[in-house]
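Entry 12.
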Amino acid sequence: MRVRFIAIGIALGSVLLGLLLSAVPRQRPDGSGVGPGERSTWILKLAPGFGLELADDGTLLRDGTIVPGWSELTTHLPDARVGRLFSRPKAALEADRRRGEARTGRTLPDLTLYARLSLSSTTTVDVRATVVRTLGHPEWLEAAYPEPTAQPASLELDQVAIDTDGHGAGGEGRAPDFRHGQGYLRAAPEGVGATEVWSYPGGRGASVRIVDVEGDWNWQHRDLPSPLFTYGTSIPAWRNHGTAVLGQLVGRDDGHGIVGVCPDAEVGSVSFLDLGVAAAIDLAASSVREGDIVLIELHAPGPAAPEGPGQFGYLPMEFWQDCFDAIEVATANGRIVVEAAGNGSQNLDDPRYLGLFDRSVRDSGAILVGAGTPWGFEAEWFTNRGSRIDLHGWGSAIVSTGYGTLWGGEREQDWYTAGFGGTSGAAPIVAGSAAILQSMSRSLWGVSLDPRLLRDTLVATGTPPGPGEAIGARPDLVQARELLVQGVADVRGYVRDPGGAPVPGARIVIGETGFEERGASEGGVGGAEVGDGSRDGDAPSVWEARSDAEGRYRLTVRTEPLGTPHRSTVTLHVSAPGFVSSILQVRPEPGGYLRRDFVLEPLPRSACSGRVESATGEPLDLGGAPVTIEAIAVGDESFRIAASASLGSDLAFELEGLQRDESFWIQASPVPGRSAAFGRVFLPANAPDRIEVPPLLIHDAESFEQGASGWVSESRGSTFGDWSLAGYGALSGTHGWSIGTAPEAGYGNQIDVSLVSPEILVPEDGWLTFHHKYDFELGYDGGLIEVEQGGAWRPVEPAMGYDVPNVEALGWSAGYSGRSDGWRVGRVDLSDYAGETIRVRFRAASDESVSGDGWQIDDVACVGYDLEASSAPNSPANTGFPAGQSPLLAQPNPFRDAVDFSWLPQGTGTLPVTSTSFGAGAKVAGAKRAGAKVAGAEGTGAEGTTSPGGILTIVDSGGRTVRRMPVTGFRAQWDGFDGHGNSVPSGVYWAQLRPADADGIATHPTATRRLVRIR
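Predicted 3D structure (tokens):
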């Protein structure tokens, strides 16, 4: 079985998404079409872990030897030029990556693995297909996609060529004072309050450097300072745009023309024309210090761009993975990145964007800026919107330098405008606000705010937009300063084990007093789901870090001023898989450096043993088939094989060395002619050294040896590749379904074919199990599973997830893609459809070129499988209850908006819930069959037992944690929202109660309860 890494899949999927841009006409940066002799550009992303190195001359090496086929590539791509995308020395790129990983504890992308392939505009070959044919469909080539065509993120009317005659009011000489028109400088809520804080130390942006990434600037304008530095080939048609941005930032405060938001800051510029946007971002970030600012004033046409005129469908640059990776490395190294959200009129939360703007999926660390109306706090008609957007600024009526529409003449250095706008106009307002806040922090405390703390501070103190306007808050520097004067400090140290060895990947969470613990074993805290930058009402913000390979961590935290009688206590929660969590409270001094090291005690490991049995209870004969039992750890980021063992001749197994305080799927490898055998088990922190798990049950399966058994192939494309009941390559017997016409012949291009089941009556706790193997072109072709209900087909996700979160030929849906490396077990939870008649189909699709060997399906079964009964090991927490009964009750279930829980105190047989707790006349699910009594006192059982509380955890059907809630007494409610504040979709979830002992410490799980949400 292949290990599935979600983070890698997400990164890959977002890169592949750029292929949609091939439908967007190629343009010059000035907006016109590519002309004769010009070149188009593709980005190639090499996969990590293959020992590859891209030389400066573009040669691809492995262990110092040219990769086979690489030299021949240019013969198939006329006039091709290949080089590294990120042009800085490799040693510098590697140093930044390691430094960023040490700061954040996160694994950062390797920018040396990106290549830039430049082609003549007359080249018409399919670049991707040519690369695959020449290099043999290499697994080390992660993606190839056209470089996005970036444009200034301003309104089209702003993108005008230089008119040397001038065309504005006024004329020669110095312009009058236009500051009265710069409402964005004034006090909130109209402006950001820049004028209100200019008189404070650092209030004008001194000591902060800003680098603008776009196309051109008029550094000769009399209202602008000399540049800190400039780099790159300019795009003259964009000069007005860059000049207007600079005026908003650092316009001179001399009584003439305009004044910038942060007039004392220093500015530089990088043009992306010859570099590419991602490389320009990287160069800009490397040119400034920790805590300084990179401003990205560009956007590019995304998948929706062909659907509308002008800039419709344009997206922020971090949509493309090379740009995202460059930003992530920059912010991990402490640079503040401010990014225009784009003028595409898009909802970035739309499913078509595959969660790439969802912080729980990925977060570059940048401040994403939308555009609002100057006085109405409404979203401008053109701005992109969504939960990912942090802040907004004025999107129109901006007075600044350039263009000459407000004050003109023959000399560009005298030009001014009163009509600048777009998210290009909004972003400098936010960037200037960030510069002021950073400068004040340095002046007050000598500490630079890290990107997350600065972003959260501006968001928490800003003026919110109008109801329903998802463009973020408008900065309020007066309120931000009031929060800043409480103080900031650095907290850093090491996390080690008792032997002094570093503990990498430990999670260090900081929260002020008032936070409630949300799962001691996970190191979480309440108020907000930590680590995602989210906020929860007026609760203090929470920041987290991860320890690096050396065990080091670093965090910046807010404090309170010296002399405060009761300075707030800062709580450090430290946790790591396999270790006992640690909690420490400290009081850092504002502007100080606090060293705190942690020694984490390792948790002991356990062994689990069990048997494989027939679901019918009859003797089971596997015909001597070799069977492997695997324990697959269920985590937030990956499913990994934690242990494996061979099934003995007596059908017994034993798995050694399983980590406590983790959940595992226990699964048998494919057994010919049988269904998958599986169960889920949680090993609590105090689990015994050896634990017996319930039997893994095997059912008979449809092996298709007697024919199709009602399954049919349906095609919506080429017939070359239809599903066929082939007499070769089956897992069991001689027959199984496959796409293609012969063994290893592959499937056709542009197919969309489905293997459709007959009608299936789903049993209670029903699961679809099957065995399959596949070979698809990675990322472009693939397969998925769909269920028909009421005449409509909808995709479903298997328990272990798909390989790639978006596959081009599947309409960017998640799917199986790449190679399976042999036969694999597949499982889909169908309990949503219990008691209903459905059909299931295996759908495969391909694009216009390149194919793999195909997809094979065998031994399919729809079985009833009570995970609740098979997932809870015998433990002291389950004593005192009737066999097979759960002491955790849920009502209503299924539920739509909220579900109420009740549970039994340990060691009793009563249900401490009132008859009115779920509404008059409501029935308590399970009370009758459990023989339970109904108590009338909240928090007290019928026997007078009290509870110190515990932790209630909600997980999805794949075992991923959705929400953790501290509980007291014997009742709780879940509102259907996850820890990030998002309402969860319909589906099956599991509630797991971990009660607290007499000292209030969460212990072993008492019980689980399956939940079904319908919406």
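Annotation: The first helix runs from residue 6 to 17. The mean pLDDT is 79.
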